């Protein structure tokens, strides 16, 4: 299973990341791990105030609700 992210500013790709993972407990958990990884990479490079977009509605709903999820 693979995961990736793209940081875009003013229509220009600034940073991309891709990696493979061999253990996926669930698609939702993998989406969450990818988001955490992307945010960590951006923080490590000094980026803050980013807008996150995802195609995983379930993950976005969990984040917006501020609730914990155990896969």
From TrEMBL:
It comes from Brassica napus. It holds the Pfam family RVT_3. It comes from the Eukaryota. This is RNase H type-1 domain-containing protein. Residues 10-65 form the RNase H type-1 domain. InterPro entries: RNaseH_domain, RNaseH_sf.
């Amino acid at each position: 299973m693979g995961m990736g992210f793209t940081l875009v500013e003013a229509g220009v790709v600034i940073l991309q990341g891709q990696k493979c993972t061999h253990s996926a407990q669930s698609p939702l958990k993998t989406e969450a791990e990818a988001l955490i990884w992307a945010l960590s990479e951006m923080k490590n490079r000094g980026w803050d105030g980013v807008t996150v977009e995802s195609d995983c509605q379930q993950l976005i709903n969990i984040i917006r609700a501020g609730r914990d999820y155990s896969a």
